[in-house]
């Protein structure tokens, strides 16, 4: 079974998603922790950002489970494969595997690609063979496979056969327009299996074992279609985290894996990985800056929420009769039973991950659990803000509390759009540092930048190490359930110093105050860790 | 085929949904316009609001297509059916049809209902026969059917048989915990069909024709499961609008109907109804006060959105090759996203969508294209900001430019975190409106809110329609390739007025200035459109 993730390539086609290179590295690490077999990182050559990502991934990504894959296209019509700059860029990504996309619907070959049926087949053969000869594992994405198959089954199956004959590891049937239903998938896979067996001179079982599936969600059946293909013998399936993708999206990795592993008993993930489902899903949503879908199957915060009342006690006695799976298996919780124990266990685990031992301090653990619940009810989220969580956890441990490097008295920020069109920001902070009262003013290119600069000026003499801290990313999310500019704002700040980065969080109805909270945590955490290191 | 909608009963179990009686009447009218065959209105007797709804529905609802249904439970254990107050309330709802829920999983009978297998069957028989004798059409919802069938197939199939023998029109197999997959549905329906044929002494075809299906979405397969049951011969299917329901929800009415009618060629709706899909879906979302899911299959505003650029011209020539259905059939539209790669063709197409004809003005088209490219290079994104794009496009058309309702002289925003911990925001704007210079100051709970308020104060006298504009959403994105708080910020503002919403964009290194730009576009667009209408 090959769990192939394309969150970073096809999933990034979803409107409004725009990952930075650092975001992509973080998503790749999360997917690897979830245990997927393949991570498609992007399209080097076509997107300059992806080229940089592949360069950095070579030294910065250390994958435990996944094979790293670069995506590209078959060579251009009428061009020698080694002369095609896009092919070269793909080779230069230096990934162990590549996935090539090819047209497999004859109408697209003729009308969009404007080349002949035969030249398209030659493009497939040449490009696959070239990458195989360069030592790469090769997958071929057959675009518009199912529509093409309906229009001209010989040609479409022929594209898959050409790729496999040229050495591709799998020919992936892509439902690019997303119009399929499970029964149609089952029927088509059955037919293609027979055709390929004849074309390749192998058994139907051997033929289907070289197919892959990639579904879009335009009929709301992408998950079911993917499962149907796997049930029909297809061992390679392509998904995206949370189903992100163009239009209604792709098959959701988490639902597909949950269904295959927990419903059909297929061991698709390495041991210990499926428990990471909720954490990985929500962390990727945070990085993509998309509010997690509370009603998402398996991972949504409402996925196992039961309206309390009449049946609450029955559910408590026999939870197995009211849930389709035990939610703990995927790292979720049954909502009405969100007991202290459940909350405590995960907080203890999380703290231990960060090197804070709460297990031996049950009272501190209770305080941390209550504090986290109270803050989360007000919009905080520690899923992507480990540094803020660690500060909070240590604060409740007498011997573990990190010293706060300064105390705020007040700040003031002014933003002016002047008559001449100039926009200026200025911040003044008044703080106490090691017994000294310091007032500092700085300008910035925005209110948060001005605050950050003023705070650095105020602290510079006492904490010269601050100069090394760089604000690497800054994310703002308006929390739902509140209105327009009067809404609650959550800010995530990522700070980087030599060899380390950390994320902190702030929540307030005022974006400047929320940013301030995250900045204070960022500097506090960094100073404490630099001192300790 | 029986299209049975339970938006108003089971769908109302979704967290945060709370319909008034007037809301329920409006939703029922919309569902009827969509052409469903049955509308389950609620549970009279159990919910006082539902009792009132059924009373008012008798005089105020004039359904063209649908049969009105009340929901209730079989009689209590050990009580005569005519003595059960819940049964009486159901009768008094005076609907032509009733749906009764019964336990069909023996474990639930024994552990939750705390009665015997035989008494539960008697409850089913008695209650069905009673309502039939009162002239009602009766459906029986077999709760936990699939889990029960796996545990004890004889008993579970026996509950369905008992209902049908007592005169029920259909026995509905409910996947209450939502754990099924299409292949499991197909297999179970095949088995139940044979068992019922034997029990009822009819042919398997006649037996399956008396079954119904009701699926929850916990495996993300509710739509596929429903379609699988119908393909296996089940003619009665229960859905909710937009898939609203408990936990991950129910099978989405719109996707199920779209799949059956447009993919499998089954005529499930009366003529002229399927075109209402988008309107009905979005109207129900508004009434439920849930933001429409932009990525929902068939009806989402992104369901047929294509990233423009390289392929725009191909899509223009052959839209049928790039969409799984013609979006117009369900009342949707193909949307072309204006992205970095946009060329003239996609800009022209996009402008046409918005009612701006650039095709006849090649020089204006060039200016718009260049302007979009220049702005996008600086971080603008018009993908989700149609209103800003329209303002920009019209500005380049001499005869089409929308008048700017005011001109900015300057603004100033102050955010203070005071010594007592209070955080306050205050904004002053100086603008010229219709020849008059206006200065206004307002406070807000954040800098952008303060600016918005101050601008509204300044413009209120000249543009009273502003009072109707509500800031519905506010998104902030820090663009990459820039650093931390010194980064370029992109703000998207969604504004809503009666029956319309529009999105605008602003980009600046200063988040306040970026927000200001988006706010100005939002008000300009809204004022211009209100004036034109």
TrEMBL record, chains A, B:
Transmembrane segments: none annotated. It holds the Pfam family HMGL-like. Pathway: Amino-acid biosynthesis; L-isoleucine biosynthesis; 2-oxobutanoate from pyruvate: step 1/3. One of its GO terms (molecular function) is 2-isopropylmalate synthase activity. The keyword Amino-acid biosynthesis applies. Keywords: Amino-acid biosynthesis, Branched-chain amino acid biosynthesis, Isoleucine biosynthesis, Transferase. Residues 1-278 form the Pyruvate carboxyltransferase domain. GO terms for biological process: isoleucine biosynthetic process; L-leucine biosynthetic process. It catalyses: pyruvate + acetyl-CoA + H2O = (3R)-citramalate + CoA + H(+). The keyword Transferase applies. Its EC number is 2.3.3.21. Belongs to the alpha-IPM synthase/homocitrate synthase family. PANTHER family: (R)-CITRAMALATE SYNTHASE, ALPHA-IPM SYNTHASE/HOMOCITRATE SYNTHASE. This is Citramalate synthase. The lineage of its organism: Bacteria, Bacillati, Actinomycetota, Actinomycetes, Micromonosporales. The gene is leuA.
């Amino acid at each position: 079974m090959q769990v192939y993730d394309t969150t970073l390539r096809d999933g990034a086609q979803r409107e409004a998603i725009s990952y930075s290179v650092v975001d992509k590295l973080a998503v790749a690490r999360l997917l690897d922790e979830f245990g997927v077999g393949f991570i498609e990182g992007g399209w080097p050559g076509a997107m300059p950002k992806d080229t940089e990502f592949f360069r950095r991934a070579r030294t910065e990504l250390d994958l435990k489970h996944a094979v790293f894959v670069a995506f590209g296209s078959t060579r251009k019509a009428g061009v020698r494969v080694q002369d095609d700059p896009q092919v070269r860029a793909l080779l230069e990504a230096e990934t162990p595997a590549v996935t090539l996309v090819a047209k497999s619907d004859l109408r697209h070959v003729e009308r969009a690609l404007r080349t002949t049926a035969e030249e398209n087949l030659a493009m497939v053969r040449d490009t696959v063979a070239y990458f195989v000869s360069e030592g790469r594992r090769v997958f071929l994405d057959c675009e518009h496979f199912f529509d093409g198959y309906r229009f001209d089954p010989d040609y479409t199956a022929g594209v898959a056969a050409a790729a496999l004959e040229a050495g591709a590891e799998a020919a992936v049937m892509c439902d690019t327009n997303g119009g399929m239903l499970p029964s149609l998938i089952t029927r088509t896979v059955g037919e293609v299996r027979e055709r390929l067996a004849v074309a390749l001179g192998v058994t139907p079982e051997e033929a289907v074992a070289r197919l892959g599936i990639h579904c879009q969600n335009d009929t709301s059946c992408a998950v079911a279609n993917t499962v149907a293909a796997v049930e029909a013998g297809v061992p390679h399936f392509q998904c995206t985290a949370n189903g992100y993708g163009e239009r209604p999206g792709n098959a959701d990795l988490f639902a597909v894996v949950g269904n295959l592993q927990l419903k059909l008993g297929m061991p698709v993930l390495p041991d210990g990985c499926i428990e990471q489902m909720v954490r990985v899903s929500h962390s990727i949503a945070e990085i993509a800056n998309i509010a997690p879908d509370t009603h998402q199957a398996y991972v949504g915060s409402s996925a196992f929420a039961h309206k309390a009342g009449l049946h609450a006690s029955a559910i408590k006695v026999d939870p197995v009769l009211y849930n389709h799976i035990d939610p703990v298996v995927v790292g979720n919780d049954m909502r009405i039973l969100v007991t202290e124990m459940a909350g405590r266990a995960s907080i203890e685990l999380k703290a231990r991950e960060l090197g804070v031992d709460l297990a031996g301090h049950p009272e501190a653990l209770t305080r941390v659990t209550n504090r986290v619940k109270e803050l989360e009810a007000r919009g905080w989220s520690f899923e992507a803000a480990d540094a803020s969580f660690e500060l909070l956890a240590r604060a409740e441990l007498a011997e573990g509390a990190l010293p706060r490097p300064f105390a705020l008295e007040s700040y003031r920020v002014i933003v002016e759009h002047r008559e001449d069109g100039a926009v200026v920001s200025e911040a003044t902070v008044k703080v106490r540092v090691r017994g000294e009262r310091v007032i500092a003013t700085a300008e910035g290119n925005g209110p948060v930048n001005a605050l950050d600069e003023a705070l650095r000026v105020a602290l510079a003499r006492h904490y010269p190490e601050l100069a090394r801290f760089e604000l690497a990313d800054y994310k703002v999310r308006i929390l739902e359930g509140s209105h327009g500019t009067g809404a609650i704002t959550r800010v995530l700040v990522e700070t980087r110093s030599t060899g380390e980065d950390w994320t902190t969080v702030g929540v307030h109805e005022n974006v400047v105050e929320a940013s301030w909270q995250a900045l204070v945590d960022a500097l506090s955490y960094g100073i404490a860790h630099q001192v300790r290191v």
